[in-house]
Amino acid sequence: MKKLLAIIFFSFLSVGLLNAQTVNRVKVNLGIGSIASISPSITTLDFGVATEFSTDFFGGENFLLKYFYSRKFEYFIPESREGRYYPYLQGAALEFLLIQETGGFEFQEGLGPVLVHDRIFSDAKSLVGGMILTFNALLSLHAPQFNGWGVGAGANYGIAFGGDNPNYFAMDISLFYDF
Length: 179
Description:
Blueprint: H1 2-18, E1 20-36, E2 42-55, E3 62-72, E4 88-102, E5 105-119, E6 126-140, E7 149-160, E8 167-178
Antiparallel strand pairs: 1-2, 1-8, 2-3, 3-4, 4-5, 5-6, 6-7, 7-8
């Protein structure tokens, strides 16, 4: 089942990348959130990088290819790490984006497949597929010295279907560059 999910995910990924016409934007995210599975929720610090591109393969739609890393918050606080385990999730997603522009803001909703590397428990690791849902509000900075740059805020929710059913939620801020 893992191999089938990985094949399906990489098929979506390769179709999107091979038919990418233009890279519209690159983005870096930083935020807080939570990860969970069959365990209680764990507060995390989240990091992500993404690239948005458009393709003519489906008729000019936009896609978002992203990587995220979410690790227990205490990992980033200086302390003795001897004998401690800090759970984390990391994953890659390819999302179909719906974009609305109004009043200088850009609102994005994304939905697509995600491949999650689950390391919530120290004695188990798994690679499982699932779905991710994203909402972003972006604002381009129009001053001449910030040409192409912008800031935003967003929320991400992902759930994997398999293993211990890990799920991921994050609220983040982002810095992006438009091409």
